[in-house]
Amino acid sequence: MPEVATKRVTAPRRYLYGPGPTNVDPRVYDAMTQPVVGMRDPFFFECMADVQAKLRDVFGTQNQMTFPVPGTGSSGMEAAVSNFVTPGGKIAIFANGVFADRQTEMARRHGANVVRIEKEWGKVFTQEEAEAFIEREKPQTVAFVHGETSTGAYQAMRPITAAAKRSGAITIADCVTTLGAMPVEIDANEVDVAYSCTQKGLSCPSGLAPITISPKAWEWLEKRPALDNWYLDLRMLAKWYEPPHVYHHTPSTTLFYGIREALAVIEDEGLKNRWDRHYRAHQRLLAGIAKLGFEPFVQEPENRIWHLVTVKPPAGVDEAALRQKLLENYGMDVSGGIGALAGKILRIGIMGPLATDERVDALLEALAASM
Ligand SMILES: Cc1ncc(COP(=O)(O)O)c(C=O)c1O
Questions:
Q1: If you take atom 10 of ligand 1, which residue's CA is the nearest one?
Q2: Residue 284 shares a structural domain with residue 365
Q3: Owning domain of residue 290
Q4: Which of 7, 137, 351, 356 is the most exposed place for a label (fewest CB within 10 A)?
């Protein structure tokens, strides 16, 4: 047997100060080493129902149709976009970063008529802009990104959902970065469809994409023309979650144990306490990093994602070299910019276990020593 086949994986221990994946609570790792059971085992059905109930709490929704879609956040995005656009149907996209561009590309590939309102990266849309755009375009569907991970910008939901509601459009909110770390409040914000991931605010390994769909959007879905997508057909997926649990795909029981435990960790801390902890870490990091000469990329404080701080490095500091030193000398994995912001900003995640005074201070010390 070749030597390599007999070696066991030994992954390095890192502090994941990026936009995700985040560090994982030991309880979640422990849950993920529990025995795999059959997909029709009563224990697994119980686990699935528990995950759905806990997801409703964290999404802030009563939506019956709330469940994890297999795959990463992009799978949630493709499920939302493909199910809620029709060939030639109009979708209006609020574009201010990489992930709105991804929504755009998916909608185009599914044959939609895509119209966009563009904004400089790092800026967000106002109520007046949302109203004028939606009133002019009269779209069937509206999509936006709640926390634009490529820029660190936080888009308030109300200005968009209120305008969409007035025109009767279905709203899709990308909550990939925000769910579990800051309020999303799907029902209070009257969002029709929201999707997320497991590896950011929920602090779990990646692999599932929680999605929630309002009764109004579900009614629309029941009547829509045939879908060009088999694996992410939400109507078929829903039949797996509801008794008699019609077979659709073979779910990873291990990932379900993981998300169930990650949601239980959140429940034990208290959702509001968790949001507050992320907000405090945000304030502390911003104050400390400003003293080192970094400048926030998002200008207005109220438009910043709490647990993903984006900053421009001081003149003369090479962001890639800085990140390399942090990784090599401290095991701290900080991210750089992507898309148009590659090489221009740092993206610093303080999510889940890292959103503490101690971990923020440790990062600030390492940054100071590495510049
Ligand atoms: C806002 C947003 N949407 C969608 C995605 C895609 O998620 P994934 O990489 O899990 O497929 C990401 C990933 O970072 C994201 O930040």
A1: 73
A2: yes
A3: 270-370
A4: 7
330 and 240 in a common domain: no
**pLDDT at res. 4:** 65
Q: CB atoms < 10 A from the CB of 218, how many? A: 17
In this predicted structure, the answer to whether residue 1 has a pLDDT above a threshold of 70 is no
328-354 pLDDT, tens digit per residue, is 999 999 999 999 999 999 999 999 999
Q: How far apart are CA 172 and CA 299, in angstroms?
A: 26
Q: Whole-structure pTM over 0.90, yes or no?
A: yes
Total count of domains within the chain: 2
Picking from 211, 244, 266, the residue at the C-terminal end of a domain is 266
| pLDDT tens-place string over residues 7-66 | 899 999 999 999 999 999 999 999 999 999 999 999 999 999 999 999 999 999 999 999
For the domain that residue 41 is a member of, what is the CATH number? 3.40.640.10
Mutation probe of ligand 1 site: the residue of 78, 144, 145, 149 with most atoms within 8 A of C-beta: 149
CA 242, 247, 252, 254 dihedral sign is positive
In a domain, 347, yes or no: yes
Work out which ligand 1 atom sits closest to the CA atom of 149.
Answer: 16
Domain boundary among 242, 266, 290: 266
In a domain, 12, yes or no: no
The CA-CA-CA angle for residues 162, 165, 170, to 5°, reads 120
- pLDDT digits 0-9 by tens, 146-197: 999 999 999 999 999 999 999 999 999 999 999 999 999 999 999 999 999 9
Query: Does 48 lie in the same domain as 32?
Result: yes
DSSP strand pairing (308-312 vs 332-336):
unpaired
Pairing mode of beta strands 147-148, 153-154? antiparallel
CA of 5 to the centre of ligand 1 (A): 33
Which residues form ligand 1's pocket by a CB distance below 6 Å? 19-20, 72-74, 77, 99, 145, 147, 149, 174, 176-177, 197, 206
Q: What's the CA-to-centroid distance between 36 and ligand 1, angstroms?
A: 28
ω before 251 within 30° of 0 (cis)? no
Question: Is residue 7 in a domain?
Answer: no
How many Å apart are CA 70 and CA 198, to the nearest integer?
A: 11
